[in-house]
């Protein structure tokens, strides 16, 4: 006589009344798959316990012959997890948006279109913003918010310009909710807005599953601003033209510390260039500066910025700040120079500002931050460092 027996482990009580065992939920989470259990079904979730249902059958007339059927619900659940991974698109993404400094900046000529040709060593650094992207149900508008007063939230913002450009170039119909958590000061010569634009292009491409190559993103980004293509380098590049011609170079070791010091006043880039006199710029060959850095590292004679004299005309207090840092930081810094068109002064070689930044009432509300050089890996965006925090003196 044949007999049958079901053996269940004590932690799992299956219900066989449900006609459709796959109908756990209408969305990517399910619960109560048994009367005694609860699970949140998230992407990449795997169950490592092994509840089972075992059916055994025997027949006394056949002696010891048995048939054993094992049902393992883990296998079904893990298959469902794989299915969700393969079919669910990206819905949220948070990215670090780092800024840059110009280790040297030569202005080589004035162009017929009114712009200037430059030759500069750009390098990404560890100070940056954080941008959160979420898919929006809207099919005609992005929504941007920020913690920084005065930052435009419409099409004037380079993030929105970048997303519009991506949709135009790829035909994507995705729109976003974006929150910009700003740490990089504006009007600082650090390329914060350009970095935000590059980061937005990268994010849009991730949401769409990679409709564009990195090379295409870099080429398109020049339509947004001259500094944007640089951020699609690996983090260190020799940039020429208006800044959009980008050639990767060997990065500077990230162990080298620096401090960024910026007064409250900004330096409008347009005003700085208006005060630029080409006959007063340096005559040093830019490639020789690049060679010296690769051979001997950073020093004061290498960190030339042709925009310093006109920036100091626009903002005389900035010249005074640089002179005070040089005088107070003798031996503390390998080089002190202005980044971009200002108004940030960079001290290479120490993460600490001079003591007068703390002591003098004149610099009570000055911005400063420690930083280091940063790069990114192949097919990855820049990773947020855990140790660099912007600071305002009190």
Automatic annotation (TrEMBL):
Predominant subcellular localization, coarse grouping: plastid
Q: What is its EC number?
A: 2.7.1.148
Q: Could you name the Gene Ontology cellular component terms for this entry?
A: chloroplast
- GO BP terms in the entry: terpenoid biosynthetic process
Q: Which reaction does it catalyse?
A: 4-CDP-2-C-methyl-D-erythritol + ATP = 4-CDP-2-C-methyl-D-erythritol 2-phosphate + ADP + H(+)
The main enzyme category here is transferase
Annotated metabolic or biological route of this protein: Isoprenoid biosynthesis; isopentenyl diphosphate biosynthesis via DXP pathway; isopentenyl diphosphate from 1-deoxy-D-xylulose 5-phosphate: step 3/6
SUPFAM superfamilies recorded: GHMP Kinase, C-terminal domain, Ribosomal protein S5 domain 2-like
Localisation: Plastid, Chloroplast
Question: What keywords would UniProt list here?
Answer: ATP-binding, Chloroplast, Isoprene biosynthesis, Kinase, Nucleotide-binding, Plastid, Transferase, Transit peptide
A molecular function (GO) term: 4-(cytidine 5'-diphospho)-2-C-methyl-D-erythritol kinase activity
In this chain the GHMP kinase N-terminal domain maps to 157-233
Is Transferase found in the keyword set?
yes
**InterPro entries annotated for this entry?**
GHMP_kinase_C_dom, GHMP_kinase_C_sf, GHMP_kinase_N_dom, IspE, Ribosomal_Su5_D2-typ_SF, Ribsml_uS5_D2-typ_fold_subgr
Tell me which residues make up the GHMP kinase C-terminal domain: 300-359
Q: Which domain of life is it from?
A: Eukaryota
Q: Its family?
A: Belongs to the GHMP kinase family. IspE subfamily.
The record's HAMAP family line, in alphabetical order, gives:
IspE (MF_00061)
Q: Which protein are we looking at?
A: 4-(cytidine 5'-diphospho)-2-C-methyl-D-erythritol kinase
Tell me what organism the protein belongs to. Aquilegia coerulea (Rocky mountain columbine)
Instruction: List the taxonomic lineage.
Output: Eukaryota, Viridiplantae, Streptophyta, Embryophyta, Tracheophyta
């Amino acid at each position: 006589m044949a007999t049958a027996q079901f053996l269940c482990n004590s932690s799992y009580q299956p219900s066989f009344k449900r006609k459709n065992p796959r109908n756990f939920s209408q969305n990517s989470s399910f619960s109560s798959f048994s009367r005694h259990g609860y699970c949140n079904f998230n992407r990449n979730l795997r169950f490592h316990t092994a509840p089972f249902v075992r059916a055994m059958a025997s027949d006394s007339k056949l002696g010891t012959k048995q048939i054993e059927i094992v049902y393992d619900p883990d296998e079904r659940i893990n298959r469902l997890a794989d299915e969700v991974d393969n079919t669910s698109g990206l819905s949220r993404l948070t990215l670090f948006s780092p800024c840059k400094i110009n280790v040297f900046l030569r202005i080589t000529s004035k162009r017929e279109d009114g712009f200037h040709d430059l030759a500069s060593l750009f390098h990404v650094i560890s100070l940056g913003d954080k941008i959160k992207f979420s898919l929006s149900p809207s099919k005609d508008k992005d929504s941007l918010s920020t913690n920084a007063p005065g930052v435009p939230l419409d099409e004037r913002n380079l993030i929105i310009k970048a997303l519009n450009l991506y949709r135009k170039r790829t035909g994507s119909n995705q729109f976003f909710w974006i929150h910009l958590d700003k740490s990089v000061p504006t009007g600082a010569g650090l390329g914060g807005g350009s970095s935000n634009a590059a980061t937005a292009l990268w994010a849009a491409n991730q949401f769409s599953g990679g409709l564009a190559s990195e090379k295409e993103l870099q080429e398109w980004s020049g339509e947004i601003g001259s500094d944007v293509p640089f951020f699609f380098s690996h983090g260190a590049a020799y940039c020429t033209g208006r800044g959009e011609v980008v050639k990767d170079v060997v990065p500077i070791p990230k162990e080298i510390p620096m401090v960024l010091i910026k007064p409250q006043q900004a330096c409008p880039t347009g005003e700085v260039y208006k005060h630029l006199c080409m006959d007063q710029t340096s005559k040093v060959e830019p490639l020789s500066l690049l060679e010296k850095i690769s051979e001997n590292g950073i020093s004061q004679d290498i960190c030339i910025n042709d925009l310093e004299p006109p920036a100091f005309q626009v903002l005389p207090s900035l010249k005074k700040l640089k002179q005070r840092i040089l005088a107070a930081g003798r031996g503390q810094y390998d080089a002190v120079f202005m980044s971009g068109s200002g108004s940030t002064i960079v001290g290479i070689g120490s993460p600490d500002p001079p003591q007068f930044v703390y002591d003098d009432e004149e610099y009570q509300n000055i911005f400063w931050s420690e930083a280091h050089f940063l790069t990114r890996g192949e097919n990855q965006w820049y990773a947020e460092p855990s140790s660099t925090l912007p600071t305002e003196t009190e």
